[in-house]
Amino acid sequence: MTTVTPVDAAARKSRSEAHLVQMGIPIDPSSPPLELSASVRPPEAIPARAICLCLCAAKAEGLDPATVASLVTNFHVGRYLRPPEVEFLYGTADASDQVNRFQWGYEACWALLWVLGRLETLDDPVARCDPQQAARIITTSGSITGLIGTLRSNDEIFDVADLTHRFLDACRQAGPPYENLPGELICPVVYQRQLAFQWLLDPAGTRWEEIIVPI
Q1: Which of 17, 97, 124, 149 could form a disulfide with 117 if both were Cys (CB 3.0 to 4.6 A apart)?
Q2: ω before 177 within 30° of 0 (cis)?
Q3: Can you tell me the distance from the alpha carbon of 40 to that of 199, in angstroms, rounded to the nearest whole number?
Q4: CA 120 to chain centre
Q5: 69-83, 95-109, 200-214, range with the lowest pLDDT
């Protein structure tokens, strides 16, 4: 398993903080370097998670149940859906209170598409992603393995994970209602990216719904 050395972590922290300063975002010099290790997720788990997130977000936007069921079958992702996702996709109970939460899942999906090499860049979280492009990338891939492009290197992932962590710190410092943030950050975008990277790099392999991102 590749692990960030203390020297690398400190250098990465400095680069992230310099980026925040360029954006006009206050930094916390006392924030420690971030200890990271390479993903322990099976190769197919990452594209499968991206597909599940996209399907739930599409359902939240109004995709009809029959189409959802067809896509789950065609992509063979049924076994990758987590219980809250199954309940949201197929449950008969009123899920209106969950719509907003699942709709923001496009942002976590977008981060994973970048990890999978299906996006050239992952821009600063100052705008929402393009849901139609995310859906197009996934549907044209044809399968879980078809969604895997040229995977990002550990160093690339560590860089963006560290930066995302410090964007989240800036959101926390600003506090509720997390609006008009410095650098024009969009807190829900930052939060969803943090979910994605925390899940991806979690050495314990924690289930998606059990990942906790304090905010």
Answers
A1: 149
A2: yes
A3: 10
A4: 16
A5: 95-109
Q: For residues 62 and 46, what is the distance between their CA atoms, to the nearest angstrom?
A: 25
Question: Is position 39 within any domain?
Answer: no
- Residue at token pair 């979910």: 195
Asked if residue 125 belongs to a domain, the reply is yes
Say how far apart CA 56 and CA 95 lie, in whole Å: 12
State the residue range of the domain holding 165.
Answer: 6-28+153-210
Q: Is residue 67 part of a domain?
A: yes
pTM for the whole thing? 0.95
Helices (H), the chain: 6-22, 45-60, 65-75, 83-90, 96-103, 105-115, 131-141, 154-174, 187-201
- Which amino acid is located at 188 in the chain? P
Does the structure show a pLDDT above 60 at 1?
no
Token pair 């010099």 is found at 29
Whether 68 and 24 map to the same domain: the answer is no
- Both structure tokens of 91: 């449950």
Joined together, the tokens standing for residue 156 give 């690339």
Q: Specify whether 132 is located in the same domain as 51.
A: yes
Task: Judge whether 143 and 124 are in contact, CB under 8 Å.
Answer: no
**What is the distance between the alpha carbons of residues 75 and 13, in angstroms, rounded to a whole number?**
38
Under the banding of pLDDT at 50, 70 and 90, the label for residue 68 is very high
How far is it, in rounded angstroms, from Cα 136 to Cα 145? 16
